[in-house]
Amino acid sequence: MISPRTLCFLHRGRQVLLLHRRHAPNAGMWNGIGGKLEAGEDPFTGCVREVKEETGLAIVDPQLRALLVITVKATGDLWVIYVFAASAPEGTLVPSPEGDLHWVDATQIRSLPTPADLAIILPRILDGGDITVARLEYATEDAVDPIKVEILGA
Predict the structure, then answer these.
(1) Where are the domains of the chain?
(2) Could you tell me if residue 98 is left (phi over 0), alpha (psi between -120 and 50 degrees) or otherwise beta?
(3) pLDDT tens-digit profile of 128-148?
(4) Given phi > 0 = left and psi -120 to 50 = alpha, else beta, which region is 87?
(5) For 10-34, what is each residue's pLDDT tens digit?
(6) How far is the C-alpha of 10 from the C-alpha of 30, rounded, in Å?
(7) What is the CATH number of domain 2-69+81-131?
(8) CB-count exposure of residue 138 (10 Å: 0-12, 13-18, 19+)
(9) Is the pTM higher than 0.85?
């Protein structure tokens, strides 16, 4: 089954808004804001919606920075994740049912438990440049380390 998703990294300078996830997949890990696309929804609209739902912030013009194709061997699931970056607008964060939101200095992210793909893509996302395309394969949905990682572009 193919599951299209979005992931967005809001930033203010070198500060990045991360979500400490409560639920699977990646429970207990830190990641950007995002989720599944709704039927008929394009990735840009889905990104804006997910950010609003999970943070209360209304972003404008998110920039596509990466495309991740993730396969899960145990289930045969295929996730296509559109990864965006956006400047964080002013405003007050609202509590998210998905986890706790925190502003984190980009230099400290490597010291946090994150999905394996985050260390690969985040520097490319924050520093601009070409869109990164990566393919990762995991044994299970909850696996911490990928079996295979391929950077296909940028």
Answers:
(1) 2-69+81-131
(2) alpha
(3) 778 989 999 999 887 878 899
(4) beta
(5) 999 889 999 999 988 788 999 999 9
(6) 13
(7) 3.90.79.10
(8) buried
(9) yes
